[in-house]
Amino acid sequence: MEAVLKNLASTAELLAVATQSGAVEQWDKQTLTRAFQWARYCEHVFNRFHNNPATRRIMEKQLQLTNQSLRAAFPGYTEISFSDLSRCQHLLLVGLLNNPDLPSSILKILFDSPVNTKKSEYQDVTGFCSHIIQCKSACKVLSPLTGVSAIGADAEVQGVMLMERLGALLSQSGKASQTEHFLDSVLQGCEGEAEHFCQVIAAALLTTKTSAAQTAAQDFLLDWLQNKHSELQHLCSALHTTLLTDLAKKHLKFRDAYCGVLKKWTSDMEYSINDGEWVQTSTNQTVSFKRLTEHFLALFEACPAQREDVEKELNALKISDGDFDVRGLSVWGDLLSALNK
Amino acid sequence: MSQLQPVIQLQSMAEPLLNIQEMQFWLDKAVAWGQADSPDTQGDTCLHLNRLRDLLQQLLTNMNNTSSTIETMKTLPFLGQFLGRLCWNPYVTADATSRRLLFQCLWGLYSEHPGNAVERKANQWIRKVLCQLATEDDDAAAQAVMKHMGVPPKEYYLKLLRKRVALLQENIGKSCNSLGDINQRCSCDSILATSEACVPLVTCPEAAPLIGVLLQQPAKCARASLSEDFLDALSSAYSSQCSSLEEQTVISLWYHNLSSLEEAVLSQLEDVVTNKGSTPQRLEEQLAQSLLPKACAQHCSIYLVVKDIFRSILKQAEGVEPVKHLIQTFTSCFLRELALLQHQTSVSLKALFPESPQSLLLPLLTLPSEMPQEAWRRHLNWLSGSLQRLTEEEEGGDRDSSGSTKRHHKVFEAWFLLVQCGHWVQVAVQLLVTSEPEDCGPLLWLLTFYHHPTNQWHHRELQLVVDQSGLVDEAACVLSSLQPRLNEGSRSSDDCNRVHLRITALQNTLIHSV
Fold it and tell me: CA neighbours within 13 Å on the CB side: how many for B117?
């Protein structure tokens, strides 16, 4: 353990030097290779211990100490946390490329043609950046071809990664709060891209690999989602109906949650005499009456068993509203008639 | 040395650098590609990728000739803008060669020791562009998710690329049911677009499965055509060994693209002509590695094309021995591959050798090893006789010009078949050495026919004088190879002596006649 801690500290120092020190002027190919090897080592350490709270805490403490001394040595030093270690190579690269003292010879090595064209995992520093650029460009070249689907390929890949992370967290830590914290932080981080994150969640819930860890992770995600009302509502309004019905078909919990959202939207509606239609009273008009009806119909088509139960409920609510058959008096009644047209 | 330098400088200045019009054309193109993202711009970029690469190479050469960045910028003022725009074009950066050239051009503008503000600024700009290319993302959503999930960008993009490739592979795998109705839309429309998009990806190893599927799709639908640019790009990447394709992909490439097949065959021919010292085993290995025999075994059409190429080479230069050896080795490799496949496909000999005289097919294709040694002489005599009759028909009918082309053709095809089945010629030489002078007639006739099918200057009647170079070479080869074999063989000493004497006599004749 002591050796690992020492290595972590050294790599943090290495990162600081790479990012901010003029010492990089002396770097040659060997130094560069070694630097990336250490960064890779840290990534392995992260993967190995991030689910182990006790070890994690020790490592975080060590990094705190190292941060302190580095802050003193380098003005404007950006601290490195334990979770940063999962992307250590990327941090090293960003640091190096932004360091104006980095010699052009090192740059040339990074942007040279990659040595191994085979799919081997051999990690040669030569062409490290070229390879990244090739992958990114190839992704862009192929993206218009994958056509318009409800979930983009990128959301799908991110969904799978989310599942993997969740699965790992749940299987080892056992503490639900940690996993919840993780999801919360991801949600917060994607605040600007809420719709995209909805797609990622949907993709995660639709991944079909059936393992016990996977099922547990999906279950956890559903529970978490149910507690995040605004996120759930956003998801139901942002995603395509087919996607929602796929989710409803696959997960009973989601079906119930979805139904709940639809009912809540219905109850929030008021009849507008000017428009001759039911409209949402809330400030963000997410769904129209017509759309709401479409949602219900799509759900019934995908899950026929739901229809009877929901209609019974709606009927009960209509009765409680006075059981009128006149339009505009009870949203439940109008909804029922719209559904049965 | 100092006297030479000014001359060189003058020369490079006298050479016209890229003219302004061309540069403007390319600059406009780069701007257009950057602005629109439609399928048309995609197609346009892919169309111009080849020429763009040549342009970049030219620019690079020019830059290497100029002494400083300032000078380069003077002669090509829009160069920075042009290169900058290309950096953000994924079609240019996805392709290994154009990316390499682009970066090399950027380095051409970089000054190790900047002497003024312009050069310093250029350096800064270059560093910034490279940094952005490698570390930044225009997909903010993906970046946010990755950062908070702690996923390294390199891992993410690799996975995303593999996912996109897998999705596209699936799409292509779905067969279409339009049954050739051109008016009906089907999923095959995407095949052309996909193949075009793969033009810059022929050197990308992760895209190889997709390329394989594109090439190997059964293509029953009229709409499922592959872009010509794609096939050309693939072909040149393969021949310059930038891309390691799977066997079936290469064979499918040849099936779709005639020029790539031709190139493969011609490169083998070039090889044998330039490397005359290669052994028969080496030749066999090389041919097997080239995948040509396998491809021919799988597709009769490929075999016929390859044969056509051989045929036209031989028509131009009938005496080139290395070529004939190649054809012979090739045919035996091909027949072996065919035998391996024979339980799956049943192609008739007639389909494979449509122009050869049918009566000679089986006799020539049968290997000497498939026949008892005692039968060889009889077999060869028969072969010699048949061929002789064929040539006599040709010569006899010379006065009657109407059928002469057809007859010439027949003789040529017979000879071509003999070249392909050159193992019998080798057997003939072997027997010549071990036979009595009286039995030599048909064998010598056969050899002379093999080396000189056209009867303009030589007589194919009984000859004992070996003054033709081909025959000399052949005999010398066989003789020297027989010597050690005799020494280790288990024949009777009488036989050995007789053969030894015969060999020595023949050797003397050879030495004295050349």
Answer: 0
Percent of chain B topping pLDDT 70:
75
CA distance A109 to A97: 12
- Measured between beta carbons, the chain B residues lying within 8 angstroms of A162 are 145, 149
CA distance B238 to chain A (A): 13
Measured between CA atoms, the residue of chain B closest to residue A196 is: B141
Q: How far apart are alpha carbons A92 and A19 in whole angstroms?
A: 7
User: According to the model, what pLDDT value does residue B25 have?
Assistant: 87
Instruction: State the pLDDT at residue B481.
Output: 60
Position B12 confidence tier, pLDDT thresholds 50, 70, 90: very low
Among residues B252, B268, B276, the alpha carbon closest in space to that of B333 is found at B268
**What percentage of chain A exceeds 70 in pLDDT?**
94
Taking phi over 0 as left and psi of -120 to 50 as alpha, with beta for the rest, B204 belongs to beta
Residue with the two structure tokens 């002489």: B377
| Residue A93 scores a pLDDT above 90 | yes
Which residues have CB under 8 Å from B274's CB, separation 6+? Answer: none
Backbone angles phi and psi of B180, in degrees to 5: 80, 10
Evaluate whether A88 touches A39 at the Cβ level (below 8 Å): yes
CB B503 within 8 A of CB B479: yes
Q: Which H or E run contains B373?
A: helix B373-396
Evaluate if residue A183 carries a pLDDT over 50. Answer: yes
**At B98, is the pLDDT very low, low, confident or very high (cuts 50, 70, 90)?**
very high
Partners of residue B160 in chain A, C-beta under 8 Å: 135, 139, 153-154, 157
Predicted-complex ipTM score: 0.89
Cα–Cα separations (whole angstroms), residue B93 to A132, B85, B161, B299: 11, 11, 15, 36
Check residue B66 and report its DSSP letter: S
Q: Please name the member of B139, B152, B201 whose beta carbon is closest to the beta carbon of A87.
A: B152
Domains of chain A, each with CATH number or no CATH:
241-341 (1.25.40.490)
Phi, psi of B462 (to 5 degrees): -50, 125
What's the pTM value of the predicted model, to 2 decimals? 0.80
Output DSSP code: residue A133: H
What pairs with residue A270 in β-bridges?
A: A279
- Measured in angstroms, the CA of A333 and the nearest CA of chain B are apart by 42
Mean pLDDT of A276-300: 83
More confident residue, B316 or B160: B160
In B138-211, the DSSP E strands lie at none
Whether B265 and B224 have beta carbons less than 8 Å apart is answered as: no
Q: Do B157 and A132 touch (CB under 8 A)?
A: yes
Residue holding tokens 């390929």? A153
Report residue A264 CA to chain centroid gap. 26
pLDDT number for residue B5: 45
The pLDDT tens digits of the residues spanning B267-301 come to 888 888 887 777 888 888 888 888 999 999 998 99
Chain segment B48-76, per-residue pLDDT in tens: 888 888 889 988 888 888 877 777 787 78
Which residues of chain B neighbour A118 with C-beta distances below 8 Å?
Answer: 205, 244
Among the partner-chain residues A141, A157, A190, the one whose CB lies closest to the CB of B197 is A141
Q: Is A205 in contact with A247 (CB distance < 8 Å)?
A: yes
CB contact under 8 A, B141 and A190: yes
**Separation of alpha carbons A147 and B398, rounded Å:** 68
> How far apart are the CA of B468 and the nearest CA of chain A, in angstroms?
51
Chain B residues closer than 8 Å to A197 by CB: 141, 145
Kindly determine whether residue A138 and residue B42, on different chains, have CB atoms separated by under 8 Å.
no
**Residue B60: strand, helix, or coil:** helix
